[in-house]
Known about the structure:
By secondary structure, the protein is an all-alpha fold. 58% of the residues lie in helices and 0% in strands.
Amino acid sequence: MDYVELAVPFFLIALMVEAIYGKLINQNTYRLNDTISSLFMGSLRGASGILKIGFSGYIYYQIETYFALWRMNSDLLITWIFAFIAYDFFYYWMHRISHERQIFWASHVAHHQSEEYNLSTALRQTGTGFLISWVFYIPLFLIGVPSYVMVSVASINLIYQFWVHTRHIPKLGWYEYFFVTPSNHRVHHAQNDLYIDRNYGGVFIIWDRIFKTFQEENEDEECIYGIRGSIRTFDPIKANLHIYSKIIKDISYSLTFSNIIMVLTAKTGWSPDGDLQASSSKKFNKIEFKKHNPETSTFIKVYALVQFFCMSYAAVVLFPSTIEYYQGLILLLVVSFSMYCTANWLDAKKIIGLEYLRLVLIFVSAAYLYSISPQMLLFYVLSIYLIINTLLLPFLRRAI
């Protein structure tokens, strides 16, 4: 069972509690633009599920059915304990390689782009992780972990990782030696020379201690969050695809088999032309570092909040529901383009022309759905969304 969907309401409540607490103690760790960007990423990750065609599930099924050494008994507690620990072990290596090799970093980089560190950062998830990360867990099926147990422990592992994305919890004494905590995970998200590419564990920090990738948080070295070679935008589409774009560019540099293999398997940030974009080898000066925080009007911020609530409804309510595949593709297109437009407003760009195009897209999508079935829920949702955006358009024009 996947417990993550059940935990989403608690995640959102925890976000609000942390934001209020930070305000009360005068240590606010939230910015509206950064938070909306992170939550857009989480919504897009859920929405991108409609594109999954079950390839990884099919491979897992074949392995579990025909190639597993044996099948563990899911009724035994020891099976669950073993699976939980073993999953975190393989997660460590997946996570580590996702930082060290750029074809995997292309997916994982989205989680690290936030220049703030709070519980919303935990929800900043990649929308392309399902493409390749599944290969790391094949050994679990080979040794007989039942798929039901596998999905369950994976979701518990992910839920555990939520609470460590905060600056408000200090070091936790002996607990720091065995488990991932806010302190040692703050290190993981920092781009300081001392901290970068450290502390990969999901639940257990012991893997980092064993394999020499552990770094303790130093009180004299404040964590600077984000990635080297910042993309300087809140656009979730670019956040998900910019390293893939780099990879394609590097492959086109020399269309030879050796260059293609080198680009795909090279260390993160390597390029055949010597460019160090997104590389941990790129020089970093914490004194010169400035967060991406363009000035926008109050209305733009309100507008972005409205769009966020609409996108959240789509991701949390509509996508998990039993909508048809083609409806999901239409909704994904509308959601992705709406996020793109909203992010551009938060980047202080004047994109009124794109807003008109977005209204046309929503209208055409709703009209198409109406032609198929006037009683379709998604038709009514898009129609209401179209009305909301039409009413907001005059105010957007004045905000330019």
